[in-house]
Design a protein that fits this description.
alpha/beta; 7 strands; about 20% strand; binds ligand TQI; binds calcium ion; binds zinc ion
């Protein structure tokens, strides 16, 4: 079953259109257009299941959600750890920070990869967006919010459990 963050934080009902910006891309070799496309697909998984809408904005001042790649310690007390281990983290509503470990071998083309340590960016993005919206981890194996994923695999489709969880909020 799905869970919420302690206290059940969520985006309030008058905020159903959330804007995100992709900043701090210097630490990744993935090009800008590819990043825009991957995150747009990842957000669409959740907007398709809810009344939420997401739009990319170039202006950080306008953004509810800020996405960036960082290596090692990056100022929030949650240092990244190099290849594998922690891949990314996202803060609960309505913080909006979503950070990715620049040291991962991110796969951003939607293909699965057999190279050791490859991590599918879209799969991680779909999971972290669940956290940004207020979901914790699920006990249902196969759910997007289940707390493990095998490296080199792609898991981007919401399961019934993810849909029930998010629809209980939005
Ligand atoms: N990052 C953890 C995660 O997002 C961070 C974390 C640990 C966390 N405990 C938490 C976040 C409790 C919220 C609540 O789960 S991670 C996966 C998965 C990670 C893990 O880098 O380990 C994915 C990031 F689920 F596959 F294991 C993305 Cl998809
Ligand atoms: Ca890492
Ligand atoms: Zn961080
Ligand atoms: Zn998680």
């Amino acid at each position: 079953l799905y869970t919420y963050f302690p206290g059940g934080p969520m985006w309030p009902p008058f905020r159903r259109e959330l804007r995100y910006t992709i900043t701090a891309t210097a630490a990744t070799s993935i090009d800008r257009a590819t990043l825009s496309a991957v995150f747009a697909r990842a957000f669409a998984r959740w907007s398709d299941a809810t009344t939420l809408r997401f739009a990319e904005t170039a202006s950080e001042a306008d953004a509810d959600i800020t996405i960036g790649f960082y290596a090692g310690s990056h100022g929030d007390g949650e240092a990244f750890d190099g290849p594998l281990g922690t891949l990314a983290h996202a803060f609960s509503p309505t913080d909006g920070r979503f950070h990715l470990d620049a040291a991962e071998a991110w796969v951003a083309d939607g293909e699965t990869s057999s190279s050791p340590g490859a991590v599918d960016l879209e799969s991680v993005a779909v999971h972290e967006i669940g956290h940004l919206l207020g979901l914790g981890h699920s006990s249902v194996q196969g759910a997007i919010m289940y707390p493990t994923i095998r490296t080199g695999t792609r898991k981007v489709d919401l399961e019934a459990d993810d849909v029930q969880g998010i629809q209980s909020m939005y």
